[in-house]
Write a structure and sequence with these properties.
Structural class: alpha/beta
CATH superfamily: Uracil-DNA glycosylase-like domain
Strand content: 15-25%
Number of helices: 7
Number of strands: 8
Radius of gyration: 16 Å
CATH topology: Uracil-DNA Glycosylase, subunit E
Largest sheet: 6 strands, mixed
CATH architecture: 3-Layer(aba) Sandwich
Distance between the termini: 26 Å
Shape: globular
């Protein structure tokens, strides 16, 4: 993907683009997250911060290597907000960011052509299944993603476990289901 044309777009200007990475030709799966965080922006790589640590255990549970899959985000720049004290923190992507990057994500997934797409959280799920799709209704099951013609398996975002420990058992069960689905590919 050539992201350089986006560098002057008002949604992107002044922010580092964090492209997807990994196996770019028909990997077993493509993981799609929300947007890069501070560490991802600094290093220019997806899922290398706290959520990336959870992703490493996720991959170990599935017996997959990071380089054997495609890892990307819906939004390719870090959405931030500043506090009254001037500290910068992450925020969910806004409509303009999602509107700009979702068509590019669809092109990216068509080009990479994974055998299965795994969405991590609501933002990724809604980018591929529409704005009414909610993770609570989709997690842990395989469905068809008509937008790219691939099967889709929805998971809670790995960061959600950091903030809501009660999701740990649900997430682990969903991983067992995903592993079973991957064995059928």
């Amino acid at each position: 993907m050539n992201w350089s044309a986006l560098e002057t777009h008002p949604v992107v200007e002044g922010r580092r683009i964090v492209p997807g990475e990994g196996c770019s030709k028909r990997p077993a799966l493509a993981l799609v997250g929300e947007a890069p965080g501070r560490d991802e922006e600094r290093l220019g790589r997806p899922f290398v911060g706290k959520a990336g640590q959870n992703l490493d255990s996720f991959l170990a549970a599935l017996e997959l290597e990071r380089g054997a899959i495609w890892i990307t985000n819906v939004v390719k720049v870090r959405p931030t907000k500043a506090s009254a004290k001037g500290t910068v923190s992450n925020r969910p992507p806004n409509r303009a960011e999602k509107a700009l990057f979702t068509p590019l994500l669809l092109d990216e997934l068509r080009e990479v052509s994974p055998r299965m797409i795994v969405t991590l959280g609501n933002t990724a799920l809604q980018a591929l299944m529409g704005p009414d799709a909610l993770i609570g209704a989709y997690h842990g099951r395989l469905t068809a993603c008509e937008a790219v013609g691939k099967p889709l398996f929805a998971l809670y975002h790995p960061a959600s476990i950091i903030y809501n420990r009660s999701l740990q058992a649900v997430y682990e069960e969903d991983l067992r289901k995903l592993k079973a689905q991957l064995a059928l590919l």
